[in-house]
Design goal:
The protein contains eight helices and eleven strands. By secondary structure, the protein is an alpha/beta fold. A hairpin with a 2-residue loop joins strand 10 and strand 11. It is globular and about 50 Å long. The structure holds adenosine-5'-diphosphate and magnesium ion. Adenosine-5'-diphosphate is lined by residues 13, 16, 18, 36, 38-44. This is ABC-type quaternary amine transporter.
Length: 239
C-alpha cells in the first residue's frame, strides 16, 4: 500500500495539449474514480501513471519514490503498478492460469498464488484451464484483475473495465472487482465516463474535463456541491 501522487502533470501529443497541470493524491489503500467525457484525457492519464507514456511536465510519485519527473523515468515494468484495460487484454492463446502466471516473479509463480488471486476476484477455480474466448466478458475482466493483482502491486489502474459489459453483468462484475480491491487493500485509480459508476466506486472522485482536473472530493461533496454548472450537468446533479 502506497500513496500515489501527481503534481502539475502535463502531456501534449504534437501540438495538442491533452493534459494540463493535473495534480491528484490517492492516499495509500484508497480508491479514486476519475470521471470525464470521452476524449477528456482519462486513458492518457493512466498511461502516464503506468509508465506507458512520458509526461512533458510534472511529477508522478509512489510514496517517497519519484517514478517520473523532468529528470527521471522509471520504466513500466519496474513501477509495481497493475493495469486493467477496457477489454481485459488477455493473451488469447494462454489459459486463465497461464494468463495470471505470466510475468510473475519466481517467488510468486505458483499454482497456489494463481488460485489465491482467482478466489480474490470471485473466479471459480474450475475456470483455470479455460481460454479467454471460453469466458464471459465479466469473467474475462475478473481474470484481468486477478492478473493485475497477482504480482502484489502497490497500485492498480482500471481503464473503463466495465464499459464493454451488458448491464446485468456489469453490476455483478463491478461488485466482484470492488470486493477484490477492498480485500487486497491496493491503492486504486479507476477511470470512467459513467458518473453512476464513479459515484458508487467507493472512494473519492475526481472530475476531468478537457485535460484538467476540475474538482475532486467525496462523491457526496462533489455531487452536492459541484464547482460549476458543467460539472453539475455532467454528474446529473442539481445546482
Ligand atoms: P479518454 O480516455 O478520456 O477518452 P484519451 O486520453 O484517450 O481520452 O484521449 C484524449 C485526447 O488525446 C484525445 O483527443 C485523443 O485523440 C488524444 N490522444 C490520445 N492518445 C494519443 C496519441 N497517442 N497521439 C495523439 N493523440 C492522442
Ligand atoms: Mg479512454
Amino acid at each position: 500500500m502506497t500513496t500515489l501522487s501527481l503534481t502539475g502533470v502535463g502531456k501534449s501529443f504534437g501540438r495538442v495539449e491533452v493534459l494540463r497541470d493535473v495534480s491528484l493524491t490517492v492516499p495509500a489503500g484508497t480508491r479514486t474514480a476519475v470521471v470525464g467525457a470521452s476524449g477528456s484525457g482519462k486513458s492518457t492519464l493512466l498511461r502516464l501513471i503506468a509508465g506507458f507514456e512520458r509526461a512533458d511536465a510534472g511529477t508522478i510519485a509512489l510514496g517517497p519514490a519519484t517514478l517520473a519527473d523532468a529528470g527521471r523515468f522509471v520504466p513500466a515494468h519496474r513501477r509495481g503498478i497493475g493495469y486493467v484495460a477496457q477489454d481485459g487484454a488477455l493473451f488469447p492463446h494462454l489459459t486463465v492460469e497461464q494468463n495470471v502466471r505470466f510475468g510473475l516473479p519466481r517467488r510468486l509463480r505458483s499454482s497456489a498464488r494463481v488460485r489465491e488471486v482467482m478466489e480474490l476476484a470471485s473466479l471459480d477455480a474450475a475456470l483455470a484451464g479455460r481460454y479467454p474466448h471460453q469466458l464471459s466478458g465479466g469473467q474475462q475482466q475478473r481474470v484481468a484483475l486477478a492478473r493485475a493483482l497477482a504480482p502484489q502491486p502497490s497500485v492498480v489502474l482500471l481503464d473503463e473495465p466495465f464499459s464493454a459489459l451488458d448491464t446485468g453483468l456489469r453490476e455483478q462484475t463491478r461488485q466482484a472487482v470492488i470486493d477484490a480491491l477492498e480485500a487486497s487493500g491496493v491503492t486504486t485509480v479507476l477511470v470512467t465516463h459513467d458518473h453512476d459508476e464513479a459515484l458508487s466506486f467507493g472512494g473519492q472522485i475526481a472530475v476531468i474535463a478537457a485535460g484538467r482536473l476540475v474538482q475532486s472530493g467525496s462523491p457526496a461533496a462533489v455531487f452536492d456541491n459541484p464547482a460549476s454548472t458543467e460539472i453539475a450537468a455532467f454528474l446529473g446533479a442539481a445546482i
